[in-house]
Amino acid sequence: MSIHPRTSPEWPATEPAEASVLCGEARLDVDLRGGGLRRLVVDGWDVLDHYPPGTIPHGRRGHVLLPWPNRLRDGRWEWDGEQHQLETSSPERPVAIHGLVSWQPWTVLDRTEGVLSVGTVVEPRPGYPFRLVAAIDYALSADRLDVTVRVGNAGSAPAPFGVGMHPYLAVGATEEGGIGEAELTLPARRLVVVGSDGLPTGDTRDLDGAVGRIGDRVFDDPMTDLVRDDDGWAHVELRGAAGALRLSLDERWPWLQVFSGDTLPAGERRRSLAVEPMTCPPNALADKADLVVLEPGRHWQGSWSLAWTPAG
Length: 312
Prior knowledge:
- This protein is mainly beta.
- The protein is 1% helix and 46% strand.
- It has one helix at residues 284-287, and strands at residues 18-23, 26-31, 37-42, 45-46, 64-65, 71-73, 76-79, 82-85, 95-97, 107-112, 115-122, 132-141, 144-153, 159-161, 164-165, 168-169, 183-185, 188-194, 200-206, 212-213, 220-226, 234-240, 243-249, 255-259, 273-278, 292-294, 299-310.
């Protein structure tokens, strides 16, 4: 028997896949490999520290963190009497980090003027035997990006999860170390102490959010007990040479992780500040801390926004 190959075989597309949305001088590029924020530029100001299309960003820059943000010790957790084992980063770093969707395809669900919605399905797998459907709605205006994350339980059993997002805020620093010149105000009153592995030690301490000039201060910290306005929103303020940024998060996000990028590769360290809305702290799957648990067919959603004011 002979096999006759097709003269014009079809192959999957290999070009980097992304979707964009425009509003005036603002442009948002969403990486459809992961569904996250690849670039946000406003009249020449890169509001987010970005990465080239199709490349692997260091530090999970811009990524969506689902079904858990941050780290899980040894990748092990228990739920409803069953033990689960997730893949870990390496034998030297035995943690499962930042969920399962960073590299999987997302699709465009809807695109209208100023609004882009993308989505994916988290299929059951070893270590996480639950089925989730996820969508993110990005709404861009001239001076603000509004982000709504939606998660649904598409399986047949109650599903525990956490979610986070990983934007790196940029206020004009172009060289390593430049974030030290920025001024920072945080809404958090409680800091969870973590070890060198990024996991909680069991200790907490009070936090003064009026940081002021960042200088040499190092951040890689989960924070909670957020100060909120009358509408239930907490606000992070970051000001630098390019202008001021205000990241606001609603009550569905009781946690923040702030990271000054000290462990990134040379040339990228401390040039921006990761400010990560999170629904739960590190090791939440194992510790059962602030997990969202959805019954089959039920949904969760949370919103955050990023507003910018260019320097005068």
